[in-house]
Amino acid sequence: MSFLTKCPDLCSSKKGTALIGPEMKETEVKPSLRISHIVHGRESRGNRVYYLVDPKGQGTLSAVPETVVLRRWRQRRFDGYRFYGTRLSATIWRAVSKALGQNAKQLCSMSLAELTQAIARKRPALRQAFLALPAPEALHTLFAVCGPSRLQAILNKHLSAAHAGLSGVPDLFVYAIHLTTGKPAIARFVEVKKPEEPVSQVQLDEIAFLNGLGLHARVLRLKERASTLK
After folding, report:
1. Please, is 227 exposed, middle or buried when counting C-beta atoms within 10 Å of its C-beta (0-12, 13-18, 19+)?
2. What is this structure's pTM?
3. Which residue, 111, 117, 92, 100, is CA-closest to 189?
4. Who contacts 143 (Cβ-Cβ below 8 Å, separation ≥6)?
5. Residue 155 lies in a domain
6. For a pLDDT cut of 90, what percent of the chain falls above it?
7. Which domain holds residue 134?
8. Chain segment 176-216, per-residue pLDDT in tens
9. Rounded distance, CA 47 to CA 216, Å?
10. DSSP-derived 3-state class of residue 24
11. Is residue 13 assigned to a domain?
């Protein structure tokens, strides 16, 4: 039985069907991540909260919530697949526009080598504008997952005058690569929240927008074990 057959919810959705809307809760369990949202060992450092990375609270390695989720995703194992992911800057689409342009068809046609070279050339300009892009490999996968039409819709939204000063970009883009084909087989956009942290309407709107395009996006709210709170 293949991975996609065993876990059909990971890769299938009907384009145009939003999974989060006004009538749905932010904690909607789909799309599935198949990682634990339970966290242990809460520790405050300045204005940041850290948790133990291990889902059972073992070990001493701790990280901020987004990194905890990212590490757990990367640690997933399934025969024939490898799991990857990256954090997304709130201004990623502005950075894409500045470094690579706004033509989604051209962006999706770029090879990894071409994308890497283009980003390297524009890196000083990005730094000067306080903009950042994910690693080329992750960005190349992001473009491939979106495809030209959906990527163009995302760029049009985030670069429009109506969206100025807003973001809503989810914290993480996580995915799995099929080791035989080298192509992405699973992809998720994830907004990570601590138990008491509110989700803004802009963030919920973005999740609904991405799901409406046929992509997979959700809020993952962490749950603390009471005995570990500090």
Report:
1. exposed
2. 0.85
3. 92
4. 104, 107, 108, 110, 115, 151
5. yes
6. 83
7. 65-224
8. 999 999 999 999 999 999 999 999 999 999 999 999 999 99
9. 31
10. coil
11. no
